[in-house]
């Protein structure tokens, strides 16, 4: 049953609105009333209504201000304005401030009933999915909102199941590992990546089957450590995610768990890579890559380390003209290379080419050519774009394209694409009800947590906070 709060400084108006329709027939229950905007804000905090019917002209704080301030609260609330002032300006302002409807006094029973039907449908469509609630909880920095989301899990009894101990399992691919019927949650964390929170005994029972035959459509399964505190879930999922991607290192599908990593050895090798690039020493660079390959073959490194090797090597090559080639997710790495050894071979070939290249000046081009590039990026920013790809398509040096982006737009290629993508995400969050993970995939980000970090960096809010403030 949805909760409604009625706000008007004239008590007879509230009573007539109460008696006008059968609220419960439409799925609502009037939980309280208030005589001013200030009183209404206090009641909202106390009663947590789903819908607030409010007058416009009231003492202390009018209805429009109540809507504006109410939309800033962490709780998503639908506002309906009721007023005797049949003026377009009021309706326009109310809708601009986020009101769901505008009704005139004296009330019409059919009109109010119609509003309730639409509100009920909207509220039910936005009903919190437990998995989405947990995703928001894991990504929510505001303690007040986090407590509210945790309360939702407690009401469903799911917080207690987590407290009893769960093991995160991450599966990569389009298939689903069998034997997880009792999973506490299925969390879609990427376009082809799902995390499951399962009891330890269920994981152990299902694991034997997975190891005997990897499920169809699954390329990697990662099993994390058992946790009993919801605040540890995100890190545990990240560890399982890392393990699932170990198939990129192993060069085969399988079931993997986190192991101790040989990070000090890798750091020493990367120091040698940097020195070799600076000295343009090809043999030393080849030796460093060979030692890195051995560390991966021994199973002492993960895809996170492959990610580090790729981006650090490209940063070393920056001074030699290789720019804007960074990757931003594990998925991108696995799409570009079959496995880590193919990645190392590619890096070695690129490094060798840049070490041998001359210092000839970059080719010049006309602005019309850059405009064609800019239009292509603007049209296709949701796709997997890179300067190397643009270089091959438009027959231009990637470094020069990078310089043109900075000169003509005032932004790097990466920042330009990110701004377009996050701008589209804001629009989808404002105007639609798609889940945050679906929106991330739509605009080109396959990793949920990377998308939410980038979104907050550029907007100052998490996607959920932004949606609630619309």
Automatic annotation (TrEMBL):
Pfam families: HTH_18, Response_reg. Residues 371-469 form the HTH araC/xylS-type domain. Residues 3-120 form the Response regulatory domain. The modification 4-aspartylphosphate is found at residue 55. Keywords: DNA-binding, Phosphoprotein, Transcription, Transcription regulation. PROSITE patterns: HTH_ARAC_FAMILY_1, HTH_ARAC_FAMILY_2, RESPONSE_REGULATORY. Coiled coil: none annotated. SMART domains: HTH_ARAC, REC. Gene3D superfamilies: 3.40.50.2300, Homeodomain-like. PANTHER family: ARAC-FAMILY TRANSCRIPTIONAL REGULATOR, HTH-TYPE TRANSCRIPTIONAL ACTIVATOR RHAS. This is Response regulator.
């Amino acid at each position: 049953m949805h909760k409604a709060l009625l706000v008007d400084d004239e008590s007879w108006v509230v009573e007539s609105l109460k008696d006008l329709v059968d609220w419960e027939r439409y799925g609502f229950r009037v939980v309280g009333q208030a005589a001013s905007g200030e009183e209404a804000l206090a009641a909202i905090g106390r009663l947590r209504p789903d819908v607030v019917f409010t007058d416009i002209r009231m003492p202390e704080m009018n209805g429009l201000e109540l809507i504006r301030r109410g939309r800033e609260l962490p709780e998503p609330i639908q506002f309906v304005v009721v007023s005797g002032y049949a003026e377009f300006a009021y309706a326009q302002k109310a809708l601009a401030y986020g009101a769901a409807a505008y009704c005139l006094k004296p009330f019409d029973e059919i009109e109010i009933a119609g509003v309730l039907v639409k509100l009920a449908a909207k509220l039910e469509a936005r009903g919190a999915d437990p998995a989405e609630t947990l995703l928001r909880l894991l990504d929510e920095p505001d303690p007040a909102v986090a407590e509210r989301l945790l309360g939702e899990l407690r009401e469903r009894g799911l917080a207690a199941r987590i407290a009893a101990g769960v093991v995160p399992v991450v599966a990569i691919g389009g298939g689903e590992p069998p034997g997880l019927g009792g999973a506490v949650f299925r969390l879609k964390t990427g376009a082809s990546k799902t995390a499951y929170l399962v009891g330890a005994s269920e994981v152990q029972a299902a694991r034997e089957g997975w190891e005997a035959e990897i499920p169809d459509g699954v390329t990697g399964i990662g099993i994390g450590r058992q946790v009993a505190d919801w605040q540890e879930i995100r890190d545990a999922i990240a560890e399982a995610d890392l393990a699932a991607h170990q198939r990129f290192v192993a060069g085969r599908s399988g079931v993997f768990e986190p192991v101790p990593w040989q990070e000090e050895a890798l750091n020493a090798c990367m120091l040698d890579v940097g020195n070799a690039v600076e000295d343009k020493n090809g043999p030393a660079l080849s030796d460093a890559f060979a030692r890195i390959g051995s560390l991966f073959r021994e199973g002492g490194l993960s895809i996170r380390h492959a990610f580090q090797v790729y981006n650090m090597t490209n940063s070393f090559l920056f001074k030699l003209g290789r720019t804007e080639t960074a990757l931003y997710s594990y998925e991108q790495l696995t799409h570009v290379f079959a496995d880590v050894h193919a990645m190392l071979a590619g890096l070695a070939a690129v490094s060798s080419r840049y070490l041998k290249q001359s210092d000839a000046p970059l080719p010049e081009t006309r602005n019309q050519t850059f405009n064609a590039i800019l239009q292509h990026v603007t049209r296709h920013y949701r796709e997997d774009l890179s300067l190397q790809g643009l270089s091959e398509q438009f027959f231009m040096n990637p470094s020069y394209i990078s310089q043109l982006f900075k000169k003509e737009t005032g932004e790097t290629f990466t920042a330009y694409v990110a701004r377009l993508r996050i701008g589209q995400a804001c629009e989808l969050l404002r105007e639609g009800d798609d889940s945050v993970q679906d929106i991330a995939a739509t605009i080109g980000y396959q990793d949920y947590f990377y998308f939410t970090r980038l979104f907050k960096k550029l907007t100052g809010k998490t996607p959920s906070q932004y949606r609630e403030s619309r």
